[in-house]
Amino acid sequence: MSSAGTRVFVARLAGTTVFDPIGDQVGRVRDVVVLVRPTGAPRAVGLVVEVPGRRRVFLPLTRVTSIDAGQVISTGLVNMRRFEQRTSETLVVGELLDRTVELSDGSGSASVEDVAIERQRSGDWVVAKLFVRRLVPGKSALLRRRGETLLVDVGAVTGLGVSAAAQGAALMLASYEDLKPADLADVLHDLGSTRRNEVAHALDNERLADVLEELPEDDQVAILSGLERTRAADVLEAMQPDDAADLLGELSDEQAAELLELMEPEEARDVRRLLAYEDNTAGGLMTTEPVILGPETSIAAALAHVRRQDLAPALASMVFVSRPPLETPTGRFIGVVHLQRMLREAPHESIGSLVDTDIDAVPADAPLLQVTRLLATYNLLALPVVDEERRLLGAVSVDDVLDHLLPQDWREQHDDTPLPATGARTVRGRVRRG
């Protein structure tokens, strides 16, 4: 067990690997849960640990035997019930970092940049120190970051409890910088609505667009509705057209129309086309931006296109070949070229010689079941969608099909969802907290 007096800074603890006593990895620390009390130092009661399956669970600090550099050792008994924050609980990374507090000596305001928890002789962990940065009135956020830093006792500040004041999110996002969009979406989903909107405002448009695509519909609508209108339109432009169309479909007709008018005409055109299709059809599922190239394109150039970082893996599995124009709706659709086939041929060869013309294209009104059967029958990750003149309208990818086949609330990760086996023992009963 960590000895009394052990001090741990939470911002540095985030991302640390958690092991069981025999050395098997359990997960990674994502946050620390504290109870902010009216009097006395806030008490730290547990860790939020991300385990395989992207589930976040609660690990009581009473089951932590050691916190050392780069690792946390638990007893090996991990409750796999999804962590649900109680109203009395506060997340250090999610809610306390960047919080503005008042220095008790009357010298002004400061922003919390880190929180130190310390183990007492009783075995309890409490918030003992705060690393804060003085805020200079009237200065920009950038200049405020250059203010004097102080390590103070938790009793030397006021306002650490729940505050209605706007709160920054830069330090929280820095702690979660390594997270994939789906994982950051989980973090935002677990936050309260006010804090979630603060974090969303702090994200750049591209990152926020990626995260929105991974959130449940209710969260998407709440976040987008909380943005200034022109910024909301910019974020929609950064999203995949099919995801943007799905989100706009959840808004009122008036809101959707307003945002479409604010979007760039070309981006809005694709989204409007998708909104015209029924949800559970190929047209409603497809994206209008697969990789589309002419038959004369070299294999080397085609491979450069599928290496794009913003391209989903399913859409990177093949190139769609058509006659000009190469933007949807294209000229006559010829066929597809599979990534594996291109990797087996000389880079200077043209993709026109490798086209697979046997892939069944589907019309825009093809039902979800037909699309699913074709993807499964031919082991495909994407399927072309064409009109009556065999012009390519877009492509349906397997991830979009799964989104519609799974239960509507699948992103909630219910507690009965099976998880991959780990070396740690697990239990599904509720863990007593606080």
Explain the layout of strands and helices:
Elements (H helix, E strand, L loop, with lengths): L6 E3 H4 L3 E3 L5 E11 L7 E9 L3 E6 L3 E5 L2 E4 L2 E3 L10 E2 H5 L3 E4 L5 E11 L5 E10 L6 H4 L4 E5 L3 E2 L11 H6 L5 H10 L2 H10 L2 H8 L4 H9 L3 H10 L2 H8 L4 H10 L2 H11 L6 H4 L6 E2 L5 H8 L11 E5 L10 E6 H5 L18 E2 L4 H10 L4 E5 L5 E6 H8 L19 E3 L7
Parallel strand pairs: 2-7, 8-21, 15-16, 18-19
Antiparallel strand pairs: 1-11, 2-3, 3-4, 3-9, 4-5, 4-12, 6-7, 10-11, 10-14, 11-12, 12-13, 16-17, 19-20
CATH architecture of the largest domain: Roll
Uncertain runs are 414-432
Estimated share of beta-strand residues: 15-25%
Q: Briefly note the CATH topology name of the largest domain.
A: CBS-domain
Gap from first CA to last CA: 19 Å
Domain CBS: 355-417
InterPro entries: CBS_dom (IPR000644), CBS_dom_sf (IPR046342), Mg_transptr_MgtE_intracell_dom (IPR006668), MgtE_N_sf (IPR038076), MgtE_transporter (IPR006669), PRC_barrel-like_sf (IPR011033), SH3_actinomycetes (IPR058838)
GO molecular function, one term: magnesium ion transmembrane transporter activity
Protein name: Magnesium transporter
Detailed description of the structure:
- InterPro entries: CBS_dom (IPR000644), CBS_dom_sf (IPR046342), Mg_transptr_MgtE_intracell_dom (IPR006668), MgtE_N_sf (IPR038076), MgtE_transporter (IPR006669), PRC_barrel-like_sf (IPR011033), SH3_actinomycetes (IPR058838).
- Residues 355-417 form the CBS domain.
- The structure is a single chain.
- With 434 residues, the protein is an alpha+beta fold.
- The chain has 4 domains: 7-89, Roll (SH3 type barrels); 93-158, SH3 type barrels; 204-276, MgtE N-terminal domain-like (MgtE N-terminal fold, Alpha Horseshoe); 292-405, CBS-domain (Roll), CATH 3.10.580.
- Helix content is 30%, strand content 25%.
- The protein contains 17 helices and 21 strands.
- It has helices spanning 10-13, 92-96, 141-144, 170-175, 181-190, 193-202, 205-212, 217-225, 229-238, 241-248, 253-262, 265-275, 282-285, 299-306, 339-343, 368-377, 398-405; strands spanning 7-9, 17-19, 25-35, 43-51, 55-60, 64-68, 71-74, 77-79, 90-91, 100-103, 109-119, 125-134, 149-153, 157-158, 292-293, 318-322, 333-338, 362-363, 382-386, 392-397, 425-427.
- Strands 1, 2, 3, 4, 5, 6, 7, 9, 10, 11, 12, 13 and 14 form a 13-stranded mixed beta sheet that branches.
- A hairpin with a 5-residue loop joins strand 11 and strand 12 (125-134).
- The longest helix has 11 residues, at 265-275.
- It is elongated, with a radius of gyration of 26 Å.
- Mean pLDDT is 87; it is low at 414-432.
